[in-house]
Amino acid sequence: MEKSTVFNNRLLPYLLLLPQLVVTVVFFYWPASQAIWQSFLREDAFGLVSEYVGLENYQALFAQPEYYRSMLTTVVFSTLVAALSLSIALLFATQADKNLKAAPAYKTLMIWPYAVAPAVAGVLWFFMFQPSLGMLARPLRGMGLDWNPLLNENHAMMLVVMASVWKQISYNFLFFLAGLQSIPRSVIEAGAIDGAGPMRRFWTIIFPLLSPTTFFLLVVNVVYVFFDTFGIIDAVTGGGPAGATTTMVYKVYADGRLGGDLGGSAAQSVVLMVIVIALTAIQFRYVERKVQY
Amino acid sequence: MAFRQIGAAAAVSAALALATPAYAVTEIQWWHAMTGGNNDIVNKLAEEFNASQSDYKVVPSYKGSYPDTMNAGIAAFRAGNAPHIMQVFEVGTATMMSATGAIKPVYQLMKDAGEPFDPKAYLPTITGYYSTSKGDMLSFPFNSSSTVMWINKDELKKAGITEIPKTWPEVFDAAKKLKAAGHATCGFSNAWASWVHIEQFSAWHNVPIGTKANGLDGFDTELKFNSPLHVKHLQNLVDLQKDKTYDYGGRTSTNEARFGSGECAIFLTSSGYYATAKGTAKFDFTSAPMPYYPDVAGAPQNSIIGGASLWVMGGKKPDEYKGVAKFFTFLSDTNRQAKLHQESGYLPITKAAYEKSIKDGFYEKNPTLQTPLKELTNKEPTENSRGLRFGNMVQMRDLWSEEIEAALAGKKSAKEALDAAVSRGNAMLRAFEKTAK
């Protein structure tokens, strides 16, 4: 005989949902709709002249070879950043999960970079690897490597990837660590008694049980590389050399903020939004099947 | 401790508020991008002005970098609460100018306020940059600089270079000698790639950056800096980059430290670098005029300015404008200008202040500070050397630098790179023309 409670109030569920809905509308739907509207306008920086131009901004955008190039750059950049920050964070988390004396200190240190503002992180990396003065660039040059992110596209890309990964590892580390700690020890011990070595235990027991965390982080990291990395890129390379590190989101920032081209910039952010929504949908549709909750 | 200071400050300001008489003081908001020692200078100027009269109070506030300040001002204008005075760097000029109604031209402001104002009292190479083709001054020059060549005298001596190089071929030779004498990573370099190698280079050789007097005479300007001379110069840089006889130093000032550290003994950048050089260089240094190609007829012509000017925003009350006008008169005062110039290293904006600095014998002790002035006043400016005014110049500079980088990295030939910079830039100019009414 089960007792079930029935709520007959029609309004209550909506009322309970209201705060969340308000936040979503104010902070997401309203700005997003503004961006969509703006992408059909041509405006000067001061907003004195504003005319409706239909799809002109989009046409101009897709007529630019630089735009396709930034798409390609984004693919390379986001794949590298997401893959590296997830795998390195997982490695660190598994190490911090061991019974070490220094584990608490280790955990604290791992979390710190997350508190650093993107622009500051960018400047830090910029100075460490500045060709002539950087404390890490000098040994590289000393070894006979011509380290020059100012002109060498690959070096510049490495630099922005490193800075973005460094910034994101902390966040991933936290979630992985929490995920690892929620895996019942008895399961792992059973595996150990059956004679599975540490690597085998990891891939057959721990990793599958960690999959919900991994999936969540994958979605979050994709959004991070697509939306949140322009501050780092601006501080490290300014999108250079010769546009080699101009990702789509950096281009949105550069065209809108430095170029004052609000219509073009808005059109780009709409395109970016569509891509990220599509990517997220794909992840939920296809990747989530492999997740074992 | 910080709380105690805030508490004390609050108490003082409360006391002041109670102590001031009931009639209202008109506040003048001044947004700027000056940091460090220059920030102190800004605050001191405001204090002096506020102490000199009792009707107006100038309130300076720092708004971040040049682009940050400009964006903050534009955003504030859109929200209907723009400051009265906004400091905008020289490349923002076209954007500010085209915003009819958003700004109040300075010549108009002075006339309306009945303040004595003679545009001829100012150095034409400075005000020309901020004036219409008719000579009407639109904004008030505040901190101006120009490009100079910084020279590490000790290292030149060590490398056996007895004369400071005057022409580009001489610079290339000196750089080769420096490289052989141990400067393996940098014979010479520069900051502000586009400003130095395109903008200043063109004016200094009296060749156009673009038509319509480099855009000063109209927004329907077209870029012209893919001429054989420009291509030759970029090609020289490309060749020298291969073995670091020239080593690219980036789009902004971030690599200026390479001069102070002694790595690069010849370095082209702003004359405004003076204060930093003085503070960091542990060697004997000086500044020299920019090099030129001796086979170009009429070179060297004159240099153009960098730095920033003060724009007055539109839609304010007449009384507030009167205050702004009085403040500009105050800034133009000869003694004050001379002092400002001698303290900050920025250029004096009035002829009288320049003459006074000469009379005071200031340049005998500080010849480095006269170099940019000599460059600017080298010859009567031509259509190609009054200045430049291109829409979206902030981003345009990045675009030009991108193409310079592509050439230096060997991705494009010098000609291809400059052609691309011109055609991409022209597309940007046409887009700007559509919004600039």
UniProtKB/TrEMBL annotation, chain A:
<comment type="function">
    <text>Part of the ABC transporter complex UgpBAEC involved in sn-glycerol-3-phosphate (G3P) import. Probably responsible for the translocation of the substrate across the membrane.</text>
</comment>
<dbReference type="InterPro" id="IPR035906">
    <property type="entry name" value="MetI-like_sf"/>
</dbReference>
<feature type="transmembrane region" description="Helical">
    <location>
        <begin position="114"/>
        <end position="136"/>
    </location>
</feature>
<feature type="transmembrane region" description="Helical">
    <location>
        <begin position="156"/>
        <end position="180"/>
    </location>
</feature>
<feature type="transmembrane region" description="Helical">
    <location>
        <begin position="266"/>
        <end position="287"/>
    </location>
</feature>
<dbReference type="GO" id="GO:0005886">
    <property type="term" value="C:plasma membrane"/>
</dbReference>
<keyword id="KW-1133">Transmembrane helix</keyword>
<feature type="domain" description="ABC transmembrane type-1">
    <location>
        <begin position="71"/>
        <end position="283"/>
    </location>
</feature>
<dbReference type="InterPro" id="IPR050809">
    <property type="entry name" value="UgpAE/MalFG_permease"/>
</dbReference>
<keyword id="KW-0812">Transmembrane</keyword>
<comment type="similarity">
    <text>Belongs to the binding-protein-dependent transport system permease family.</text>
</comment>
<keyword id="KW-0472">Membrane</keyword>
<comment type="subunit">
    <text>The complex is composed of two ATP-binding proteins (UgpC), two transmembrane proteins (UgpA and UgpE) and a solute-binding protein (UgpB).</text>
</comment>
<dbReference type="InterPro" id="IPR000515">
    <property type="entry name" value="MetI-like"/>
</dbReference>
<protein>
    <recommendedName>
        <fullName>sn-glycerol-3-phosphate transport system permease protein UgpA</fullName>
    </recommendedName>
</protein>
<keyword id="KW-0997">Cell inner membrane</keyword>
<dbReference type="GO" id="GO:0055085">
    <property type="term" value="P:transmembrane transport"/>
</dbReference>
<feature type="transmembrane region" description="Helical">
    <location>
        <begin position="12"/>
        <end position="32"/>
    </location>
</feature>
<feature type="transmembrane region" description="Helical">
    <location>
        <begin position="71"/>
        <end position="93"/>
    </location>
</feature>
<keyword id="KW-0813">Transport</keyword>
<keyword id="KW-1003">Cell membrane</keyword>
<dbReference type="Pfam" id="PF00528">
    <property type="entry name" value="BPD_transp_1"/>
</dbReference>
From TrEMBL, chain B:
<dbReference type="GO" id="GO:0042597">
    <property type="term" value="C:periplasmic space"/>
</dbReference>
<keyword id="KW-0813">Transport</keyword>
<dbReference type="InterPro" id="IPR006059">
    <property type="entry name" value="SBP"/>
</dbReference>
<keyword id="KW-0732">Signal</keyword>
<dbReference type="InterPro" id="IPR050490">
    <property type="entry name" value="Bact_solute-bd_prot1"/>
</dbReference>
<comment type="function">
    <text>Part of the ABC transporter complex UgpBAEC involved in sn-glycerol-3-phosphate (G3P) import. Binds G3P.</text>
</comment>
<comment type="subunit">
    <text>The complex is composed of two ATP-binding proteins (UgpC), two transmembrane proteins (UgpA and UgpE) and a solute-binding protein (UgpB).</text>
</comment>
<feature type="signal peptide">
    <location>
        <begin position="1"/>
        <end position="24"/>
    </location>
</feature>
<keyword id="KW-0574">Periplasm</keyword>
<comment type="similarity">
    <text>Belongs to the bacterial solute-binding protein 1 family.</text>
</comment>
<dbReference type="Pfam" id="PF13416">
    <property type="entry name" value="SBP_bac_8"/>
</dbReference>
<protein>
    <recommendedName>
        <fullName>sn-glycerol-3-phosphate-binding periplasmic protein UgpB</fullName>
    </recommendedName>
</protein>
